[in-house]
Design goal:
single chain, 289 residues, alpha+beta, 36% helix
Length: 289
């Protein structure tokens, strides 16, 4: 048991190969025509199937999973550190490239345009099993219970990115002596900085989460950054940078006719009620823009 525990801590050659690949990978946006295969919906897993089909149709996501080194498949022979990545790679490998028709086939008058060649349907049970074994507090999957597709997408992208980041760090890890911890003064916030805007006006900007210096391919593909600014009548402006994988847009309003309209409404100026000044501790007028 002691040997097994030690082997889980020390990176092997396959993990380092995967980490090096991810550190040097550049997204590829060329689309590949795949042989269509239906996904079997059973026991309310349709929320998973819908997201898997959407990701499969996303060229940079497909190319990333398809180009991963073969060593990633070898990681499954032991207690894997990348269970989510393993299951998605296995799903992507279920699909083959659609064969292009030759000139004679294209000229065949008996061939109907409506004829679509499809493969045998499949049930990605290995993905379901991975989800059931997830030790995740924010997204807990119960067999047979319907879940939210958007929540699953966020969970999946976060999980894939975390697994990739762990492998990327293993590949660049060097033994160093730990420096003594230095506590920052309580009144200093390491994630706050002064940002000078138009007309020389300054604005205190804060990140919601600590930004890693290493960006994973999943983050390069799907992670956005939302900036919201609060302007008060005292002139003490502050901004918040918050990363996101998905945006919840209101499309029920009759005035919204496009995604652009929905985005405009989502980021429209909003007057804040009950905003308290940090200096005077009194309620003042403030607007989020």
């Amino acid at each position: 048991d002691r040997v097994d525990a030690q082997s889980l801590k020390e990176p092997n050659s396959a993990e380092k190969e995967l980490g090096n690949f991810l550190n040097n990978y550049a997204l590829k946006h060329v689309a590949t025509a795949l042989l269509p295969r239906g996904l079997t919906n059973r026991s309310n897993w349709c929320f998973v199937n819908a997201i898997l089909q959407a990701l499969l149709a996303c060229p940079p996501f497909y190319n990333l999973m398809k180009n991963l080194p073969n060593s990633v498949l070898d990681l499954k022979t032991q207690k894997s550190k990348t269970p989510m990545l393993d299951s998605i790679v296995e799903f992507i490998n279920e699909f083959s490239v659609l064969e292009q028709m030759n000139k004679n086939q294209k000229k065949d008058k008996n061939r109907k345009k409506e004829d679509i060649v499809t493969g045998i349907g499949l049930e990605p049970s290995y993905v379901y099993k991975m989800l059931l074994n997830l030790e995740e507090d924010t997204f807990k999957v119960v067999d047979g219970r319907q879940e939210d597709a958007e929540e699953f997408l966020t969970c999946l992208l976060n999980g894939l990115s975390d697994e990739m980041l762990a492998m990327m760090k293993l590949a660049t890890e060097e033994p160093v002596q730990e420096a003594p911890a230095i506590e920052a003064p309580a009144d200093e916030a390491p994630d706050d900085w002064q940002e000078v805007g138009a007309k020389g006006k300054s604005c205190v900007t804060r990140r919601v989460t600590n930004a890693s210096h290493v960006q994973t391919p999943i983050q390069s593909l799907a992670l956005g950054m939302c900036r919201s600014c609060v302007k008060s009548e005292t002139g003490d402006n502050s901004a918040t940078l918050q990363p996101f994988y998905t945006l919840q847009l209101d499309i029920q309003d009759q005035a919204i006719q496009s995604v652009t309209d929905a985005l405009g409404q989502n980021f429209a100026n909003e007057k804040l009620d009950g905003f308290i000044c940090s200096k005077t501790k009194k309620e003042i007028d403030a607007t989020r823009i």
